[in-house]
Amino acid sequence: MEVGWWGVLIAVLGGAIRIGTPFLFVSLGECLTEKSGRINLGLEGTLVMGAMTGYAIALHSGSPWLGVLCAGLAGMLLGALHSWLCSFQRVNDIAVGIAMMLFGTGLAFFLGKPYIQPSAPRLPSIDLGGWSHVPQLQAALQINGLFLIGIIVAIALRWILKNTSWGLKVRVVGESADAARALGLPVDRIRLLSTAQGGFLAGIGGSYLSLYYPFNWSEGLSSGQGLMAVALVIFARWQPLACLWVSLLWGGAAALGPALQSVGITYGYYIFNAIPYIMTLAVMIITCSPRRNLLGAPHELTITR
Amino acid sequence: MAGGRGNRFDQVVSMDVPKNLHKALEPFLIIVGSLSVSMVLFGGFVAAAGANPIEVYHTMYRAAFGSSFSWQNTLVRATPLMLTALCTALPGYLGLIIIGGEGAVVIGGLAAALAALTMPTAPPMVVLTTMAFVGMVAGGIWLAIGGALRHYRAVNETISSLLLNYIAIAVLNHLVTSTFRDPESLNHPSTYHIGEANMIGLIPGTDLHWGLVFGIVACVLAWFLMHRTVFGFGSQIAGGNVRAAQIAGLPVGRLILIVCFVAGAAGGLAGMVEVAAIHGRANDTLNANYGYAGILVAFVARNNPLAILPVAVLLGGIRASSGLLQRAHELPDATVLVMQGIIFLVILFSETLYGRFSQLQKQGVA
Amino acid sequence: MAPSHKLTRRQVLKGTAAVGALGMLGSLDWLGQAWGAQDKVKMGFIFVGPRDDYGYNQAHFEGKSAVAKLDWVKAFDEEKVPETIEVQKSMESMVQLDGAQVLFPTSFGYFDPHILKVAPQYPNVLFLHCGGLYQEGKHPKNVGSYFGYIDESQYVAGIVAGGMTKTGKLGFVAAKPIPQVLRNINSYTLGARSVRPNCTTNVIFTGDWSLPVREAEATNSLVDQGIDVITCHVDSPKVVMTTAEKRGIYCTGYHVNQSKLAPRGYLTGAEWNWAKVYMDYADMIRKGQKVPNLVRGGLKEGLVRVSDYNQVVTESVRKQADAAKAKFMSGAMIVYKGPLKDNAGNVAIPAGKEYVQTDYWLESMDWLVEGVIGSTKS
């Protein structure tokens, strides 16, 4: 069926979900981590490690979902390592994050060599587009269960942070470690748990890349997506639901470039492909102001101090 | 921090160890200790992968520091890192965390290459000076954008510099493949060649190009700027406490812009060196991740420009060893990434050990 | 292998003398003393990406592995060497520390300035570049080039694609609009249109050699626009193939055989046959023969090949494809002959003019043939 220019809209819609899902998971994970006052730039390495682990386990076990779970566990370990290292005095968490990025990526590439050739089982899709008689729309709405899980996690995270005592503890630790200690809260342990859980989510995000879209494990897998997702958390002002919208926005913008080329807009595709970055920068310039900025930023974060 | 150490020494006076020697020894011991520990960890890693750790150590040494060829290999890889580390280190004094070195390198290199094309008949020294100037200005402006956004619009400088990296790469690719493309550079779209006569030459007697000198001089000057001038002192104050600085009358906004500009200029210079010493053109290989490597160097060196020099050499050496590790031990290229990660994680972890020696001394004596 | 393959001093001297005599023809120089000490031919390979990328670099690595099996060859390689000064150091290191006698830097961007800078310093080492750029008189004598005309395989693949498409719309995910890529796109389209005159090829340029997400998006966008056979020219076609398979369309591969990735949809593919090239070189070196500075060839010379057809490929299409293959083998096939229009309506090749594969004019191709939807301008 001929769709012409509607194809661009469909691609943006599909892309928002397809491309946005891993960003959703990584940014939610980082959101939780940063709420506790820790910044984890190593999520890029965690993402790649998760992708590799997920693919490898899926291959060995035959079950992609088991792969997803193990990817999360691998991410959890890396997150815990990061937090443990940072819990010592004077250790700079941003620097550790960058070193973890190298370590995680290197480890994943190293261990992942034997898994590039074979084909792992793919995560199944859910057809949400059955109501449409437009095959392209049906394809765009063929989403993976992880997207729905991601939405649930976003909602749950928001509720947990706002309404549970654990969420409150995390926020206190993130706002003022001294106040938390005065209250008798185990600051380092709470940060360790948050960072580990953040790593868990990031690992799952990575497994989505290798087991669903673009369904490929190789050394060219990520091009800074983990790093961008960390940036998106700041863009989303540390609000879990905002992370969801921001990830969707990002995914849609990233799909724009190729979609435009498919309908004949061929000039300037490098610039079109950079639209997500330009858009994010523009929105940040417009919405930030010296008075309102960092509203919502946990005070313990090194980048805000 | 320093004051605390002085006090504890009063109790150790019977050891008769001069205060300064102890203070100077500490970083040295910690660094050597860190390197040893990371070597052991890495050895364990390669052993698990099936290689002989001792042989691997030997190979790494041979490849990085074992001969004059190796040394030159290491230094040539360290050169761009010396400059790009400044992109992160200098704003670090102000408390800014900027990771935009990649963008500065790319924009600076492109601008320098284009500048050279505007003067086809000028003598080489004039061309090179212009290229360096233009490259530095272009890179400086690019990073200063991030600083300005931070100061005037309170946009987080880490994100804005990261986004500007990607935008810079897109701009480079677009311009190099369309507007400024040399039609003869068929399968590798690039700008026109700047002319063989205009290329930066080698330091006589070596295989190293003069870019190394640029890097060393830049770091020394940067250290001088930040530690021996009023400007630098003011920046450190502003970095420590913005309110205090403003109350003291320091022009914080101006400081931010200038420091970011200088930092970006270093990156732009690195880009110019890539074009003038190696490629002779601007193309997508300017995006060689020197900027990102520089971030790590800056953090490990704790933003101190003088410390950047040895750290850059260390990182250069690690990367230089990749080739021989692959060939002699059948280890994949990823091994070097793991090694970088381990070494830097251990060094960063060792930050926590500073000052603890004095505590141990005290416990030992008392 | 049999001990007779070991080199004796006499053979070396004979070979050197023979080579010296032929020196006037611009052959590659030889150093006898590098031979005498060791018997094995030492070959170094440099890849720009990971050696198991299911694509470009893997094709070269498979070639290297084939030649490494020979017991009179010692082959070593480095992967992920960027096109900066690092490759110069890698080459020097291979020569100095490993005693390489011949180097194969396999990425296009290694030639200028890197090989040209290092080669003059080691006149006794061969630098054989994958790219076809060598020019007699302009470049040092110990430099050489080799390249395969894989666009011939793409032409045959295009015939299969054109024969099997139902919508008449083909898709091409390409990295950058450089001549090598444009040649593939054009040959594919010309092949397809030779069996189905009105079919079109939609091209999307991703901008770089390895961008999995963008390649997947491009594939999806093309399928949304009605494409039902897709191919690509990126470093690792894996993503395009698996995405095509998921969307249920046909695909043809590139670089190496990807049929395992898309068992239902992989019709055929254009593959390199570097093993033959490397074995030939190794053999020439062992025998002390002069190694030509320029080695180029297509299907006929065995530098490239076409994957086996998928079982769904119909009999008539197979016949057409085989006929084209046979014509290539006999040397009678000319892909680029006039009259040929480009996709902007201009004349690309006037009537009566034709270009053989080795013609340099083809190496600077900057147009897309009629029937391709897309533009070379970025």
The helix tally of chain A amounts to 13
- What is the SS-derived class of chain C? alpha/beta
Q: Which regions of chain A have little confidence, pLDDT < 50, spanning 5+ residues?
A: none
Helix content of chain C: 25-40%
Classify the oligomer. Answer: heterotrimer
Shape of chain A: globular
Q: What is the CA-CA span between the terminal residues of chain A?
A: 56 Å
Summarize the structure.
Chain A is mainly alpha-helical and 305 residues long.
Structural description of this entry:
The complex is a heterotrimer of chains A (305), B (366) and C (378). Chain A has 305 residues and is mainly α. Chain A has helices spanning 6-35, 43-61, 64-86, 93-112, 135-140, 145-163, 165-175, 177-182, 187-211, 225-235, 240-262, 269-273, 275-287, and strands spanning 125-127, 142-144. In chain A, helix 6 crosses helix 7 (165-175). Helices cover 73% and strands 0% of the residues of chain B. Chain B has helices at residues 2-9, 19-48, 53-64, 68-93, 101-117, 124-153, 157-177, 211-228, 230-240, 242-247, 252-279, 290-300, 305-329, 334-349, 356-365. Chain B is globular. Chain B starts with a helix and ends with a helix. Residues 1-15 of chain B have low confidence and may be disordered. In chain C, the strands form four sheets. In chain C, strands 12-10-9-8-6-7-17 form a seven-stranded mixed sheet, with helices on both faces. Chain C is α/β, with parallel strands linked by helices. Helix content of chain C is 37%, strand content 20%. The N and C termini of chain C lie far apart (53 Å). Chains A and B meet through helix 4, helix 10, helix 12 and helix 13 of A and helix 6, helix 7, helix 12 and helix 14 of B.
Layout of strands and helices, then pairs:
The complex is a heterotrimer of chains A (305), B (366) and C (378).
Chain A: H1 6-35, H2 43-61, H3 64-86, H4 93-112, E1 125-127, H5 135-140, E2 142-144, H6 145-163, H7 165-175, H8 177-182, H9 187-211, H10 225-235, H11 240-262, H12 269-273, H13 275-287
Antiparallel strand pairs in A: 1-2
Chain B: H1 2-9, H2 19-48, H3 53-64, H4 68-93, H5 101-117, H6 124-153, H7 157-177, H8 211-228, H9 230-240, H10 242-247, H11 252-279, H12 290-300, H13 305-329, H14 334-349, H15 356-365
Helix pairs in contact in B: 2-3, 2-14, 3-13, 4-5, 4-8, 4-11, 4-12, 4-13, 5-6, 5-7, 5-11, 5-12, 6-7, 6-11, 8-9, 8-11, 8-13, 9-11, 12-13, 13-14
Chain C: H1 9-21, H2 32-37, E1 41-46, H3 56-68, E2 73-78, H4 85-98, E3 102-105, H5 111-118, E4 126-130, E5 143-148, H6 150-164, E6 169-174, H7 179-195, E7 200-205, H8 212-224, E8 229-233, H9 238-247, E9 250-255, E10 266-272, H10 274-287, E11 294-297, E12 304-306, H11 315-330, E13 336-337, E14 340-341, E15 347-349, E16 354-355, E17 372-373
Parallel strand pairs in C: 1-2, 1-3, 3-4, 4-5, 5-11, 6-7, 6-8, 7-17, 8-9, 9-10
Antiparallel strand pairs in C: 10-12, 13-16, 14-15
Helix pairs in contact in C: 3-10, 4-5, 6-7, 6-11, 8-9
